[in-house]
Amino acid sequence: MLTRRAALMGAASFAALPAMTRAASAEEIMDTSMVEPVDLSNLKRIKRKLVRPPEVHAHEQVAPGAPRIVEFEMQIVEKEVEVDNGAYLQAMTFNGSIPGPLMVVHEGDYVELTLFNSPENMMQHNIDFHAATGALGGGSLTLVNPGEKATLRFKATRPGTFVYHCAPGGPMIPWHVVSGMAGAIMVLPRDGLKDHEGKPVKYDRVFYIGENDFYVPKDENGSYKRFADVGESYPDTLEVMNGLIPSHVVFNGKVGALTGDNALQAAQGEKVLFVHSQANRDTRPHLIGGHGDLVWERGKFNNLPERDLETWFIAGGSAGAALYKFLQPGVYAYVNHNLIEAVNLGATAHVVVEGDWNNDLMEQVQAPVEYNATHEGRTALP
Ligand SMILES: [Cu+2]
Q1: Which of 31, 154, 243, 267 has the fewest CB atoms lying closer than 10 Å?
Q2: Does the predicted model carry a pTM greater than 0.85?
Q3: What are the boundaries of the signal sequence (predicted)?
């Protein structure tokens, strides 16, 4: 299945690129051009413009009719990103954001993605959809050099939230992923989500949270190193990666991307669906002050959701979904409940909820006040 282009890329084109891009081998490129094209001319087509996470493009929760071909475009952008004050990452991104945008379709739809590798980029890239079947998730049919584009179509046969990521071969795979090249797709059941009893359930909004572990190298003085381009960053970054201790664990590309002025907003009574992906490493989301009312912990909607969870588990290389109806106003922290990663390394988001406080759910019976230690408090001890 070696194509002429693949053979050429194995020799001439690769030679022009930095050494670290040569890892993609010929067997990772498939030629399916001899296979009769499938006739989908009876299907409607719809274009969806992808948006920057945590937002999600407009979509219906219940499919409006027969399966469609849903067209997306994505551009790969290599760029420097400040992931924390003074810490710079030579990032590789789907559509300029970390994570890449959340795509939404329905079970039975066809996802048709055109992937552009900008001529300004240095690296080969592709896309592996965990939601797709065959050809390394589409990776073998989408490997594009800078200045090339490719279009992949796959049938979304399994409902759920799934990771996609770049997987251009060999050691390029983990490097591209921890440099930001991962996102998620949500394949909704045609009749929408269902609760633990199989009854229809709707969400009022979706927040897409993509978690990343970054491995930013430090110099001999302990300061973060800054590099001229993505290629120059590779050797030092690889060394930190192979130590398996991230310098940063963040939501949506940087420390503070979803806190303070960037906090997520919701209203009391709203049902919010949190879609959370981690392409490389396990994580355990927890909503401080709230719960997961219905949690598809492994993200797959053919399975009944768990109820009332306090913390849930997202296996590295997967995306999960949790639905919560906000009952109290205030600031909630949505964290990775490895609290070192949440607080010291960055994996925290805030949700600011407007509404009226409910003293039945929680009341401050006595505000903090000084007490007489000689008379009070002793009865608490065993
Ligand atoms: Cu890539």
Answers
A1: 243
A2: yes
A3: 1-26
Q: Number of structural domains, the chain?
A: 2
The Cα–Cα gap between 220 and 234 comes to 18
Tens-digit pLDDT profile for the chain (382 aa)? 334 344 334 333 333 444 444 444 545 688 888 899 999 999 999 999 999 999 999 999 999 999 999 999 999 999 999 999 999 999 999 999 999 999 999 999 999 999 999 999 999 999 999 999 999 999 999 999 999 999 999 999 999 999 999 999 999 999 999 999 999 999 999 999 999 999 999 999 999 999 999 999 999 999 999 999 999 999 999 999 999 999 999 999 999 999 999 999 999 999 999 999 999 999 999 999 999 999 999 999 999 999 999 999 999 999 999 999 999 999 999 999 999 999 999 999 999 999 999 999 999 999 999 999 999 998 898 9
Is residue 59 a known part of a binding site? no
What CATH number corresponds to the domain at position 288?
2.60.40.420
Please tell me the distance from the alpha carbon of residue 117 to that of residue 124, in angstroms, as a whole number. 8
The rounded Å distance from CA 262 to ligand 1 centre is 27
State the catalytic residue, choosing from 176, 248, 276, 350: 176
C-alpha 180/C-alpha 6 separation (Å) is 26
> What are the helix (H) ranges across the chain?
4-8, 14-16, 172-178, 230-242, 339
Tell me: do 39 and 68 sit in the same domain.
yes
Which among 193, 227, 262 is the end of a domain? 193
Q: Does 57 show up as a binding residue in the annotation? A: no
Considering 30, 74, 181, 241, which one is annotated as catalytic?
181
Q: Is residue 365 part of a domain?
A: no
